[in-house]
Design a protein that fits this description.
The protein is mainly alpha-helical. 80% of the residues lie in helices and 0% in strands. It has 10 helices and no strands. It is globular and about 65 Å long. It is found in: Cell membrane; Membrane.
Length: 279
């Protein structure tokens, strides 16, 4: 899965970089999504492989904090990119004639920068607050990477402020993004259903299908992991660990596959590249 994630996302980035016809908002956001997936998978999956293959169950304290930062910062960035892609689909379908004038390259760069800065700034206090707290003698994290709530459970002190800040970040980032995505797709659905032609409706739905699949692949395991950490005390540990792994394993692997299959421009570019290598 790690090999597929790295190869697929690197291929997406390479195609968008060399093909100037793909320097449009949708593909620029897709490139940012690929970069985010590469960072997320590379900050967690090599250590997962070391645990599962070589029984290397130890992680250095500062490396654990760095992993906490990268997991949560770039999960926030990925959520923001999915929100930006939903806005792009909304503008493309509801205002097709004004799409290029509304979502200019400058606007796309500013939106991508805002999403990146939000993720880095909102998550930085996690590591700072944890680093100042005492840990219990038992320092075993019951999953294969360092996640904020899992590390927080090892602290022998009052963690109400940390938990409260974690909830604030979750609702202010993921909650806001989900609301924007939901409103965007409600408006898209209304616009599509007003189209007179059934073929036009199918084409409009087809342009959104890839994005909807990516949204579901990211948010379902992420929300399950978030909720079970705080409220799912009766959820079997093996189920929780499996979903925690899916949350970081599946989206980086699936995203390039979904977009590679569903997006004609990328699919054709990959096909031409493979055909040129044939003898």
């Amino acid at each position: 899965m790690y090999i597929v994630a790295v190869t697929g996302n690197a291929t997406i980035l390479h195609i968008i970089r060399i093909d100037h016809t793909l320097h449009e908002p949708m593909y620029l956001f897709l490139a940012l999504l690929a970069i985010t997936d590469l960072v997320l998978s590379s900050s967690t999956q090599p250590k997962m492989l070391a645990i599962l293959w070589f029984h290397d169950h130890k992680i250095e304290y500062h490396a654990c904090l760095i992993q906490v930062f990268f997991i949560h910062a770039f999960s926030s960035v990925e959520s923001g990119v999915l929100m930006a892609m939903a806005l792009d689909r909304y503008v493309a379908i509801c205002f097709p004639l004004r799409h290029s004038s509304i979502l200019t390259t400058s606007v796309v760069v500013k939106l991508g920068t805002a999403v990146m800065v939000r993720g880095l700034l909102w998550v930085s206090p996690f590591c700072f607050m944890i680093s100042r707290m005492p840990f219990c003698p038992n320092k075993v994290i019951p999953q294969s990477y360092c996640e904020h709530m899992a590390v927080l459970k090892l602290v022998c002190a009052d963690t109400k402020i940390n938990r409260g800040y974690g909830l604030f970040v979750a609702f202010s980032v993921v909650g806001f993004d989900i609301i924007v995505i939901s409103v965007s797709y409600v408006m898209i659905l209304r616009a599509v259903l007003r189209l007179p032609s059934g073929e036009a409706r199918l084409k409009a739905f087809g342009t959104c299908a890839s994005h909807v699949c990516v949204i579901l692949a990211f948010y379902i395991p992420a929300l399950f992991t978030f909720l079970t950490h705080r409220f799912g005390h009766r959820v079997p540990r093996v189920v929780h660990i499996m979903f925690a792994n899916f949350y970081l394993l599946v989206p980086p692997m699936l995203n390039p596959i979904i977009y590679g299959v569903r997006t004609k421009q990328i699919r054709d570019r990959v096909t031409r590249g493979v055909c040129r290598k044939d003898p």
